[in-house]
Design a protein that fits this description.
alpha+beta; eight-stranded antiparallel β-sheet; four-stranded antiparallel β-sheet; 6 helices; 30% strand
């Protein structure tokens, strides 16, 4: 079977914080407390020996009293194994190559001969991912470009890792580090209304779907699904549909959008079907469309971030230059709404 892996990238807005504080700090001007009072880029050079070439396995945690209150909303499944293979710091961009994977997916890698088999029980199979952090000429927001392979990327984990290593370095080199002695990076997906419109209007066969999962007595999983489907976008509702999807992604819609339907996702979708139905009869809902490769893609609140993955190639991994060129083209198109001064 031909390799149908999708390669692309995603974009995030990244804010810089002193430790666990919530005030954004300017990337160029903010300094850590104490000597030598480093800015963010200088700190990256300081922690390079603890960041590059070091394998980390397990949940990444800031080793601080408030750790239990940290955001774990992105933590799903087994914790990843991550290693930064390289870090190149330029005047306006920092490029990383990161390997990431999870242990336990397979127990044995089979060689061409049995003597070449490799036991994988305590190992994680990984792939390399390009991650680039575009630094602003001024201000406290940067732009993160994360290579995506199918649905996997390394940008969020890398930003967390930098904060964890910064925290550990501060604790090792000062008596009880405080918030102003280490950096924390916070990611938020960039809402691209143009990309969302591409998906909703240029895809084939856009449909709304409501589902009811019937679980027979004595069964733990549903074996019977009742589906209600409406093909096509309701007339005059595109703006509200876009606002709804952005809401699922926790992204504020542009002011010119119509209001999203109210209620739960099922209630929202039920209101768009075009005739009276009882939302309580259903327990799940989605939008679906056929992409340029003829594959059916489904948008649910749980996977809405996939909408904002920009495909670059299918089958063969593109070069770093190809990923970077496509990402920078998209960032330029978003400059007016991003309002982040970047040198690209």
């Amino acid at each position: 079977m031909a390799n149908a892996t999708m390669f692309g990238f995603k974009l995030d807005r990244v804010a810089l914080h002193h430790g666990l504080t919530h005030t954004n700090q300017p990337f160029a001007d903010a300094r850590l407390e104490g000597e030598p009072g480093e800015n963010f880029v200088q700190s990256l050079e300081t922690i390079r020996p603890h960041l590059v070439g070091v394998t980390r396995t397990g949940t990444l945690k800031y080793n601080a009293p408030a750790d239990e209150a940290q955001d774990t909303s992105r933590a799903t499944g087994a914790p990843p194994t991550i290693r930064v293979e390289s870090m190149r710091i330029g005047s306006s961009r920092i490029d990383f190559v990161v390997r990431i994977g999870r242990r336990g997916g397979h127990d044995l890698a089979i060689g061409t001969e049995s003597g070449r088999d490799v036991v994988l029980e305590d190992l994680a199979s990984t792939n390399p991912f390009l991650v680039s952090l575009y630094l602003p000429e001024a201000g406290s927001d940067a732009v993160l470009v994360s290579e995506v392979r199918s649905r996997t990327s390394a940008g969020y984990q890398l930003m967390k890792l930098i904060g964890v290593v910064s925290n550990e370095h501060a604790r090792q080199n000062s008596a009880g580090s405080n918030n102003r002695q280490w950096w924390r990076l916070v990611c938020k997906p960039i809402g691209d209304a143009e990309r969302l419109e591409e998906v909703l209007t240029q895809g084939n066969g856009v449909a709304f779907q409501l589902e009811r999962h019937n679980v027979p007595k004595g069964k733990s999983r549903s074996t019977d699904i009742v589906t209600l489907r409406r093909n096509g976008l309701p007339a005059g509702k595109l703006s509200s549909v876009k606002a709804m999807v952005l809401g699922w992604a926790k992204i504020d819609p542009p002011k010119e959008y119509g209001p999203a339907p109210s209620g739960s996702p099922v209630e929202q979708l039920a209101s768009l079907v075009g005739f009276e139905i009882e939302p309580s009869l259903f327990d799940d809902g989605s939008l679906s469309y056929e992409d340029a490769q003829g594959r059916t893609q489904t948008i649910r609140p749980s996977n809405v971030g996939d909408v904002f993955v920009y495909p670059v190639a299918t089958g063969e991994r593109p070069t770093e230059d190809e990923i970077r060129s496509a990402a920078e083209d998209r960032i330029r198109r978003l400059q007016a709404s991003l309002r982040i001064p970047l040198n690209i």
